From TrEMBL:
Lineage: Bacteria, Pseudomonadati, Pseudomonadota, Alphaproteobacteria, Rhodobacterales
Xref: InterPro entries: Quinoprotein_dehydrogenase, Solute-binding_3/MltF_N
Signal sequence extent: 1-23
Keyword Signal: yes
SUPFAM superfamilies recorded: Periplasmic binding protein-like II
Domain Solute-binding protein family 3/N-terminal: from-to ranges: 34-265
Top-level taxon in the UniProt lineage: Bacteria
Gene3D superfamilies: Periplasmic binding protein-like II
Protein name: Amino acid ABC transporter substrate-binding protein, PAAT family
Organism: Rubrimonas cliftonensis
Keywords assigned by UniProt, alphabetized: Signal
């Protein structure tokens, strides 16, 4: 998880290490003329400078409903992201922030997704839906270092022989998801545990048919599903309420955008979802 982007993953976790936002009433800082968004310039499928990500599309939708143009502040989803963008009043909203973090004031969540298992559609692992499946024993699997599935994989003895990938990278110079999917296609690894929105989108583009299955059956901590929100400055409760209303009224259009990018959506409690995405 923005967010998780993201405690998770390539996405959500990067925000967890940013500096704290000031807990003051800053509602008067919100622009009356622009929908000012903080975003990563090279973090597909979430966002990029060309406006090709699903967070770009959702930002454009929300801005159109407010009758404002979108104005971006670009900054890599890495150390200091919140401090250098939202906290410095360079923008008014962060797209895709994991619910529950104290760096921002969270809106209501507008989607819920989960870490997923991705493998080739022709693999005998294609119907694996939990990390404890005995068929994963002895297989070479891809693990994002420090991501929630890594803890479950260690618990099930899957770390030995696994191929590790870095969680924190500058997405302008390195794309971990591309490396993972390339390794699955080539047979370097048999499958991988990835944040669902990234896995779903990358699988849609792969030359080899892939299956992406949300991991909803894991027991114990950490959980593998995350509610994703918009993040605003602490104290901006009026702005938060306005965005909550906007998200609620446009839920169907937002869901359609997410589905078009292959995002595996699950219910609010991570118990049911759309199942495997192919």
């Amino acid at each position: 998880m923005h967010g998780v982007r993201r405690l998770l993953l390539s996405g959500l976790a990067a925000l967890c290490v940013a500096g704290p936002a000031a807990a003051v009433d800053t509602f008067d800082l919100v622009s009356d003329t622009q929908f000012r968004v903080c975003a990563d310039p090279a973090n597909m499928p979430f966002s990029n400078e060309a406006g090709e990500g699903f967070e770009n599309a959702i930002a454009e939708l929300l801005a159109s409903k407010l009758g404002k143009p979108v104005a971006y502040t670009w900054f890599p989803q890495s150390l200091g992201f919140v401090r250098r963008t939202l906290a410095e009043n360079r923008c008014d909203v962060i797209m895709g922030f994991a619910q529950g973090h104290e760096l921002v004031l969270n809106t209501n969540h507008y989607y819920v997704s989960a870490y997923s298992f991705v493998t080739r559609a022709d693999s005998n692992l294609a119907d694996v839906d939990h990390i404890g499946d005995p068929r994963l024993q002895g297989r070479r699997l891809g693990l994002i270092a420090g991501s929630p599935p890594a803890d479950h994989a260690a618990r099930h003895g899957l770390v030995r022989g696994a191929k590790g990938y870095r969680l924190m990278v500058d997405t302008r110079n390195q794309n971990v998801a591309d490396q993972v999917l390339d390794d699955i296609e080539s047979g370097e690894i048999d499958g991988a545990f990835m944040w669902g929105p990234i896995a779903g989108w990358k699988a849609m583009q792969a030359k080899t048919p892939m299956v992406v299955t949300p991991l909803l059956k894991e027991e114990g901590a950490p959980r593998l599903f995350f509610r994703v929100t918009l993040g605003v400055r602490m104290g901006e409760d009026g702005w938060k309420r306005e965005l909550n209303s906007l998200l609620r009224r446009n839920k169907d259009e937002i869901d359609a955008i997410l589905s078009s990018y292959g995002v595996p959506l699950v219910d609010d409690f991570g118990r049911t979802g759309a199942g495997a995405v192919q």
